[in-house]
## 1
Amino acid sequence: MSTIQPIVGASLSSEALDMVVAAITSGEFQPGERLSEAELARRLGISRGPLREALGRLEGRLVTRTPRIGVRVIELSKRNIEDLFYTREALEGMGARLACERISSQEVARLRDLLNTDRSQPEVQAGEAYAPRSTDDDFHLSIVKAAHCEQIERLLMDQIYYQLRIHRRKSSTLPGRARAALIEHENIVIALEARDPDQAEKAMRTHLRNARLSAMAAVTE
């Protein structure tokens, strides 16, 4: 089923942005594919003004605009993807360390609930894939928010998370990766529950290092 559905709501631009992001990151639109503004506006049931505003907010993140050609889904080289993962490992490693000092008991409980929910997903249990269903259910973003560091959150959200979401689901489907990622998430939560900053940073960096290797293997395939 297509992610693009008619919009019913007050904030047309924001809803259009969410739907376009979901469509791109789910693979409905492929890297390098041209996006027809007229067709997208028709499918969303809105005028082209709010859609252009949404696409403008995604320029440099998930789409590129070329004069006389139009808008295309961003294409990342293997080197681009690898560098994004190196940057993510540094930022999220520090985020996990800070979270040990600043996370609330409620936030720790929320992470444990997310992990238990992830563990119950049929595709995770079958070892087929492990990817977040929505931003609110994103394990990594929850830890970044628990670090209560606006600079780290902004750097990750502004570009890195947008661009890597294109590749997260594909790399999570490699044999054995889903179950391994779940165990790695468990190790991160254990370190956070113990308020052990060294172990939390180490567990996060190990997890993202393995995620990078999986992503590189998926790109090569």
## 2
Amino acid sequence: MTAMTALEQPMIHWVEEDQPRSARWRSESGNPAPKRVVIADDRMTADAAYRLACEGTGMLWRGDFQNARQLLQALARRAEPKPKKRPKLPATPTDAFNLHRQAQSQRARTLGMLLLPFEADYSIPLRRAPDVQQACNEAYGAPTDSFVTSLRELQGLIGAHEWRKKGVDIPALGDRIHPHYGVYSPVRGEYIGLVAEAPLPSTRLAFDIGTGTGVLAALLAKRGVTSIVATDMDPRALSCAKENLLRLNLDGQVKLMETDLFPEGRAPLVICNPPWIPARPSSPIEHAVYDPESRMLRGFLSGLAAHLEPGGEGWLILSDLAEHLGLRSRDELLAAIAAGGLKVVGKIDVRPQHPKVSDQADPLHSARAAELTSLWRLAAA
């Protein structure tokens, strides 16, 4: 996911002090520009703001920045689903998933209606506004022009900046991985543990398909694989992986390549951790989680045999959450493996440990409680 150029950014328009005004709209998370924009400040009540947000009206903030933060928190409380509005009859897992996604999308649209002005140098011309120039530079690149974006998007940029600074502890690496904005953070460590434990078919060469932060390429290098080709289609991911590998002093073992799925040639080990849920992402950032019609999964399985050396293995890291949600069956997965001219030579499973597993208030709790993450060891049939 690359940052938008100024020419690709739409304009928003409003009236202020009886004069027509306009500015570029910026949203790396893919939110459309609000069609109607009004001026808002410290006098606006939370109820009035919530009504406007639900109507799809953007509120360009001219008051105190910290008051805008408090207003967004008040909007978030009002956007929470009310218990009495939840369906009484139990939905199927697929229905629960679709309703959950719908509610998430509506909530994001509503909370995205509180807007902030930015100067061309990424400063915010509001009282008590923080210095966010470094966070904006990391997400957007070098500044070019003034623009407007949502306070919620800014919070995402600041959160990504903090993750990038402190990093994610990876016990199997004995070090930390520092994710960049827009690159999926390896916070679910159970799949990394599987790659650390599985027996290596060779330490000569490996392909890491869809490397992201570079965490699995780094782990293979730490395990003694002397040469790794790590691919990704996203320039942000490749930049992130490069920075991580340099910091870990593993860049000499890993070659990064911008390509869709496989590099040329064959390897004794080909590894892939595709997005686990076959559904349409609602924003560019969600492409790491949602894989429409299992495009990446099917592409990996259909092309794997042609990129394996004789006796080599393909490692597919995949959660079965989609199966518990009714979005993909085990039979469909096995059929795709067989259709790719592959056979299963082994499988290692682990139960996730993330907080949502035990959160009974989560609408997807039953599926999450049953979830297994697996490393499928595949070979040419």
